[in-house]
């Protein structure tokens, strides 16, 4: 049996959300102290006021909750609960996969392993979470944890680093530079680059799968 509740989340995403909120608070503070109250001085703070909403849905909300009855995957706009009896195993490649006995596997995109660790074949965050969840699954079944192998639905897809993976640090750099220099268009360009790269990489992964 499983006692208590365990919450698995990405510390990187959580830290990114804290940074976004800190940037917004800093910009508003500086604007109120040094600004002259004109529209131009308030444009950048007002333009980035959406950051707490993005931080909540994109960084604070996503997580996986393991309870005595099953696991709940909380995504930005959707929540899915899977009972332990319906789970075959957990494994990971780029992100954590919840393999169900009936139906397609469930991808937990907030629990991932960075590309550098994956390319170097080092254990990442998603791998550790999958291992811990398999132990919990074994406790529920009263037996041993399922063996994780590369011959799985997730493991058959090889991760290939390409130019689109570079969009993530580039997008973060653009956002940081735009926030520092007070250039709203540059700050907004960063998330846009990341969104486009994510869409392209997901389409490529679906085509390979």
From TrEMBL:
Keywords on record: Membrane, Transmembrane, Transmembrane helix
Domain Low molecular weight protein antigen 6 PH: 61-103
Transmembrane segments: 12-33, 39-57, 161-178, 184-201
Keyword RNA-binding recorded: no
Presence of keyword Acyltransferase: no
Domain of life: Bacteria
Protein's recorded name: PH domain-containing protein
């Amino acid at each position: 049996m499983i006692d208590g509740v365990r919450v698995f989340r990405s510390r990187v995403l959580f830290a990114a959300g804290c940074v976004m909120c800190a940037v917004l608070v800093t910009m508003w503070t500086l604007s109120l102290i040094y600004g002259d109250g004109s529209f131009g001085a308030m444009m950048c703070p007002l333009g980035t006021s959406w950051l707490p909403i993005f931080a909540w849905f994109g960084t604070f909300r996503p997580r996986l909750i393991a309870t005595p009855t099953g696991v709940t995957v909380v995504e930005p706009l959707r929540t899915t609960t899977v009972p332990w009896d319906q789970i075959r195993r957990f494994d990971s490649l780029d992100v954590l996969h919840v393999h169900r006995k009936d139906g397609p596997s469930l991808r937990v995109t907030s629990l991932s392993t960075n590309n550098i660790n994956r390319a170097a074949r080092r254990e990442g965050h998603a791998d550790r979470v999958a291992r811990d969840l398999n132990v919990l699954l074994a406790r529920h079944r009263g037996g041993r944890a399922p063996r994780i192998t590369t011959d799985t639905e997730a493991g058959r897809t090889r991760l290939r680093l390409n130019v689109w993976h570079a969009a993530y640090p580039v997008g973060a750099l653009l956002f940081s530079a735009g926030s520092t220099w007070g250039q709203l268009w540059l700050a907004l360009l960063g998330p846009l680059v990341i969104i486009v790269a994510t869409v392209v990489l997901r389409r490529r992964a679906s085509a390979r799968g």
